[in-house]
Structure formats: C-alpha cells, structure tokens
Amino acid sequence: MRRWFLGGALLCLAQILLAQDVLKEDSLQEVVVTGTGTQHLLKDAPVQTEVISGKMLQNYGGQSIEDILGGLTASFSFNEGDMGSQMQMNGLGNSYILVLVDGKRIHGDNGGENDLSLIDPHNIEKIEIVKGASSALYGSDAIAGVINIITKKHETGGILLENTTRGGSYGDLRQHNGISLNFGKLKSYTNFQLQHSDGWQNTAKEDPHQTEYLITDSRNKTVNRHTNWQVSEHLTYTLSKDVELYADGSLYRKRIYRPSGIHPGVDVKTYDLRYSNASASAGGKWKMNATDVVTLDVDWNRHAYYYDFTAVTLTDGYVNGHATSYFPYYPGQSQLQSDQQRTMAHLKGVFSLPYENRLSAGVEWRYDWLKAPNRVDGGRATDNTGALYLQDEYSPFPWLNVTAGLRLNKNEQFGWRLTPKVSAMFSAGEDWRIRTAWSQGFKTPTPKELRYRYIREMNGTYLYLGNTALKPQTSDYFSLGAEYNHGGFSATVTGYYNHVRDMIALVTIPNHEVPTDLYTKYLPLKTRRYQNLETAKTYGIDLTLRYRIDRQWTAGLSYSYLDTDAEQYDTENDLLRNVVIDGMAHHKGTCFVTWNHAFRNEDAFGAGIYGRMSSKRYYQLNGNGKGYQLWRLTSHYAFSSRRGKQSPLTFNLEAGVDNLFNYVDKTDHGLHLGTTTPGTTVYAAFTVRFNKGKKITNNYKSNSLNQTNNEDN
Predict the structure, then answer these.
(1) Are the beta carbons of 265 and 220 closer than 8 angstroms?
(2) Which of 4, 198, 346, 575 is most buried as measured by Cβ atoms within 10 A of its Cβ?
(3) Each residue of 528-539: pLDDT tens digit?
C-alpha cells in the first residue's frame, strides 16, 4: 500500500511536468467561512480549510455524507452500524468532531454517535473541513475539528421545483424534493428527503470466541433494513436592505428493522429501533454597514430514541430511573430509551477596526436536558453552559495574517475555563502559503458519560456504566502546513500533533470495581465504564494533490498517515499501560480522475473513477478491522428541454458502479469490520428541476458560474 501511494504521487508529478496547457484552478476562488467564522477566499484563508466543492460532489455522486467524506478525503473513516456512523477524524472519534449545517451544530446523540442521515446529500452546496481544536471559536465538541455542511441557497425570483430519485442495489432508495417560492420580501424553501435500504448480510457466522458453540446460520445482518424521512422548512423575510430575518423547522423519523436471532445467547432481538427528531430555530442578520454585521440565532432540538417491540420481552424494570422487578412488553408497544433536548442562543458580531483588524465577538448559552429512564441513574439529567469569546484577525502586511482568539466558558458543574488559539498565515508570492496554528480544546463530560447505566444482552451480559468522577477533557493542537498553487496544480501538506489530556473512553474494568449490587444481579461477562485516560496523543501528516490537466481532465489524491499513543491506568495491576485509540488506521488514502465535457447545445457529460483505501484498523476489544481497497466508477449527463436556448426545465442523469472488484469483508459477526460494503453495487438517479423567474443552466454549468462569481467577489 505504501508503494501504491508513492507511485500515485510520482505519476501525478510526472503529469504536471509534461502538461503544456494549464488552467487556473477555480476552486481556489471559493469563499470559505468555517476556519475563522468570517469570509475569506480559500487561497487566503488564515486557517487551513479543506473544501469539497459542488462540482466534486456532482462528479462523485455520493449516496450519503459518510460516503462523500470517506470517498473524497483521506482524513475520515466510518464503521456504520445501528447506533450511528462511528466517524473518526485524524484519530479522534465522533464525540470530538463538531458537525455543523450552515454554521449550526446538528443534534442527535445515540450511543455517542450523531445520525448523519439527518443531512440530505442532494441539498449540499459544498463542505468545509477544518482540522484541529476549534473550541475557542465553536466551544465543546471541536477538539478533533469541524465539518460545516453548507446547503444550497435556491435563489430564485419565482418558483423552483426539483425532484431527485435514486435507486440502487439491495433496495437502496434516495428521494429528494424541494419547493422554493418567492413572495416579494418573504421567501420559502421546503425540503423533503427519504432514504431506505433493505440491508444485507456478509456472513452468517458468529464469532466463536464469544459464544458457547459455533454459529454458522445466524440471521444477524451486517447492515439492517432501515427507512428514514425528513421534512424541513426555511423562511426568510427581508425587513429592509440591511435586516433579514429567518425561521426554520424540521421533523425526522427513522426505523431500523432487526431480525430475531435463532440461537439462545446470540443477541436475540425482540424489538426494532425508532428515532424521532424535531427542531425549530429563528434569528436574523443586521448589516450595520459595508463591513460590520450582527447575527442572532436561537434554536431548539430534540432527539428521541425508542424500542418498538416485535415479540414479548421481559425488560429490566426501571421506572423514572428506579429499579423495579422485570415486566413484559408486548408486540406493538414502545419503550423510551432516551429523550435529549437542547436549547441554544448565540449572539455574534463581526467588526472592522483600524489598522487592518477584524474583530469577532460573541456570547452563547446552551442548555441540555436528558430523559432516559432505563439508561441514566435517576432517569433525568441536565447541563448548562455559557460562554463569551473574542477573535481578532490582524493583517499588518499583505503577506501576513495573525488570528488570535479566546473563549471564556462557564459550566454549571465544572466551573470556569479559558480556551485560547493562535494561527498565522505567511504568503510567499501568489503560489506559496505557509500556515501554522496552536489551539486548545476543552470538553466537559456529557450527562450520559456521567450517569450512564445500560445492560446489553449479546453473547452474554455486558454492563455499561457512567462515572460521576470524570474530569473535563483538554487538548493542545499544533499544526504546520505548506500550500503550493500554480496554474491548475495545487499541493497541500500538513503535519499535526494533538495532545488530549483526561480523554474519556469506555474502558473494561475488573469485577472488583463493579458495584456489588449490580454485579450480583447481572453477573456480567464484561463491564465497561466511562473513564478518563491519563493521556492520549494523535499525530500525523495529511497530503493532498490536485491537478486540473486541461479543461476536461482533473486528477487528484489524498493521503493521511496517523499514529496514536494513549495511556490508561490499570487499577488491578497499579501501573500505566499503552492502549490504542479504537478505530485508528496508520494509512488511509483516496484518488480520482474525472473527465467533464460541455457540448455546444449546453448539454454536459462527466465521468470519473475513484479509489479509497485503508490499512488495518486497531481496536482494544473484538479484533481489528481488515485493510481494504474500494474502487468506484461514476457518470452524469445534464441537459435541458430547449437545446441551445434558455430553458426553465433541466434534467440530470447519474449512474455508477461501486466496489468494482467486489471486495467483501466476511469477518464473523460480533467482530470489527474494515468496511461493511456488500460487494459490487450499482445505482442510477434522475433529477428534474423547474425554475421559472430566473435564468437557469444545468448543474454542471452552474457550478462553474458560482466559482466565477466567487472570483469576482
């Protein structure tokens, strides 16, 4: 695999030296906001920002956010399951990665994982990725980095209707509908999405080390059948040329269908999983003058998680967090597992100051409320956090930008905390940028981590416990990177070091540390408790090469090397021992070659081949995940109803084949997989878009138009 990465890099460099006609890379003119919370051209962004542009999204034809991030950047890995995406970014897991949609954090924590199917992949304009601790600007959950999903704005002077239907192997169905209406000062956009899969089974074997006998005909699936849908509404009202107000709302439902086991002691499932989410938000933006702006956002989110019983089930009796005797649930009945609600308010201002300074200042308030009768001691828990932050961007010379920020955090349980950050960018002419950063991260334990209590019956009894003695996690992140852009070629290399202190992780504890009443009642095979590790370090190098060979051909690759070093105190043997951070892989990479052609009649065709690969993924328990390589072929064709003329009706056809070489990880159920892919799959999608009231071009053309507009800005 190392030889493959080196050979790919040398091949790209050879193409660069031999090419004669090189075009300017339009993506460098993208406007980005995530790194500093203020607008910058990508090439001049003070904080290193990786962008997955609209053109890249269209060429790739991704099925989901997990598919897009894993296929287009080497920094991410996923191990999707019923409990979430199990995302990892540069060695740190989902709870350390802040996921934003248009600058607002998504909500939905089940098993420590956000449900990324809340995000409609057909409504994404671009994705901005900032790696490293960003707590000074964004607060908790931003120790590994920030992913900002920026949705399409659907600007239209009249009516916009769009429909995308995508179907694929194993009953995969993706449906997207959008309606945009304009009533003068009032604008409305309604979005609907539906996702379904029949699921699949890569092996019928159970792990023989976790069961009393060898199972070769298990009904457990690698990915279970599931269906989810979401409807959302976005309203904007232009009060004046300087003031705009908005209101948002959404409803989301998801059902995961789980087959019942057929052998005693082999995770006999007697219930499906159901999720019920809702959100509401309102706010506004006031442009004080050409450079200064003030924004206000208030939002509420709910994520509820239920068992829907499919057979008579005796459950562990907990009513409002207090133990009772076992009692039955019958088919058709439901049991609430957790109801998490969050209310946030955020007031922010951006101001231009004398002597080339730009100041960002804000105040935040966050209230978390958790109800989980069967999973949290006492049945309920709350958390309350307030914060003030300041950030100054100082550009004393055209070739230098220094950005410094400071956040003052106040948590009701863990008190006050200051979190600073400093970054600098040096420009060496038009082609070279050097960026360096130091930032601290700060994350308080969640109510779940403090008070969790859960019994899982799978190949024996597993007991999971919270820990009220947990301490907040802190981190120091250092990075140094260089970027070179010339003509159609861009190269970025960044080295980083992230030192996390008091990292919280689920740790297997010896029997004598289990509370006597719980151990006597359940006799658990293993007990895992949230615990602070002594220290955890992640360090590595990220490399990205992109080359626009001519007007039609583009090639690129990304590579990520990662290593980790974590220490855990072993109370049984009274010593420190080294442990791996679950899910870590030393080598990950992606590569692609695309071809796009615009015809004279304004039709456009594109095709691409993509590869992604990973070395072995390491885990503390239940085996390591195998390394893999997956290859993908995509194509799309955009056309309108009036050839060569302006048309309100446009169409787009997509088709592709994923996992060309039919790789399947057949590791026994119960152990970790490198990838859950079922083997070779196919897909096709058809989009119809009607826009009356404004000139519209096909999707391929519109991306180029957006990039040109950004360059003008």
Answers:
(1) no
(2) 346
(3) 888 887 788 999
